[in-house]
Structure formats: C-alpha cells, structure tokens
Design brief:
The protein has 295 residues and is α/β, with parallel strands linked by helices. The protein contains 13 helices and nine strands.
Amino acid sequence: MSDPSPRLILGCPLWAEPLWRGALYSSAADADQRLHEYAQVFGAVEGNTTFYALPPADVVQRWASLLPADFHFCAKLPREVSHGDRLDANHPELLRFFQRMAPLEQRLGPIWLQLPARFGPQQLEQLSTFLDALPSAWRYAVEVRHLDFFRKDDNERRLNRLLHERGMERIMFDSRSLFASRDTDAATLDAQHKKPRLPVHALALAQQPTVRFIGGMDNQLSLTRLEPWLGKCQQWLEEGRSPILFMHTPDNRLAPELARLFHLRLRERMPELSAMPAWPGEQERDQAPQQTGLF
C-alpha cells in the first residue's frame, strides 16, 4: 500500500471544523461536504476520534465514498488497546477496529499506535510481539512518549531498529512552537497544558516519515519554527519518500492556513512540486457576483 511516486502529503488534525466554512469550505457545506472538500485540498487527516470510540459502520462507508483512493486516513488504535496494561493483539476492541474501518480500504493508514508515557524500553519485546501480530494488509506508525526513547542511546536505537525492520514509521511530535508561545489566550494555555513536550528527532524509518507539528496562534512565527522541516521534507522527497505532515494550532482554526504557508515555502525550494489545490470556500467567494453600483 505504498504511494506510486513520492509526494508531499499535508493534513490537519480534523476535518469537521465549521469555522473553516467560507475559506477552506464553501459557506453552506454540511459535514459530508466538508470531508469531500477537505480531501480535494489535503491528502491526509488525523483520525483521532477512533482513539475514543469507533464510528458507526454506515459512517465509515460514507467516508469511503467521499474520499479519493489515494487519501490517507490515519486512524488511531483504540485507547483500550494502546493504553491498557498490556498490548494484546487479540483484544476485542482491536478486532472491532479493523472490521469497522475496513471499508476505507487503501485509504486507511498509516494506522497509528500512540503509546502512553509509561510505556518504556523494558516493554520493547511486548511491542515487537504485538506489531508482528497485526494484520499485514495495513500500514502502521508508532508514537512513543517515554523520555528514555529520546536519549540517542541504545534504547532509542533498539526502538528505531524494531520499527525499521517492520517498515513502520516513528511519528515525530514537534510542540516546540507551541511551548515557545507567550500567548495567554485560553486555547493556547489549554494546548500547553494537554500537549506533551518532548525532544524532536527527525528520522525516516520507511517511506512515509510522519510529523505532527503543533504551532501557536501566530502562523508567521510558527513558520519560522517550521524552517528545519522544509529542509527535511526536501531531503525526503529527493530520496523518493512521501512525507506526511500534520499542522496543528491551539484551536486549529489557523491549521489549514499554516499548512498552505508551509507548502508555498517548500515550493520556493522545489518549484517542481504541484501547487496546492484551490480552496472551495475561496473559489465560491471569488465567483460570487459583484455589485458594481446602484444603477
């Protein structure tokens, strides 16, 4: 299930954001129309809701009908699986997850296993056994939060080797811009309280290195913090990889625009990159008839 040719894949942490109507989305877009219009512009989305509860079967079927074949729906494995006492490949919720999400077919993935901060190097053998038991039809990526996986020592090398041997990515979580922000608005303070603050190690273990970037409320300032990722994306693309980048902002109202700014900046380095598709809401606004005068 690899991409036929290297490409930059951008996304946001959600699509069902009514505040994006009139810009990313057309002004009257309902939930289904928002997903359809989102997928016209972006190539991936974070499926965070599956961490908390699985969507109804008819909803997944509808998503599949609205998404293009080359879309990446990066669903998280249920928290009952990832945050339980032990990783269990026979957990009923895991089996339900694969059955429920199967209609997405090639659009599903990379599937994310987000491990809690308490999951450390002493549990790598457990992780290895679990990953080997997962269905081989899908792509996977793993996000760790235990600080002992960020010390550039043998523990980190063991983790990276384990994932590399299985063709799985290690998700990179970059919250430096968020924690550098001095904004005191409620959304920023809430994000600073909830988001992890971890070292950032840029690495590609397979074909789709995956970055979750958490910016602040100032996209221009966030863009300066994204500068190193421009170089890494250029490198990965030139190596024949297809990097996946997700742009977050504290209330995510500014996330699509941050993704667009990043894409524009990368095209300055790599003019051969395709332009980002036009936003349906902006197209609607531009095509609206203009009143030229009273007479």
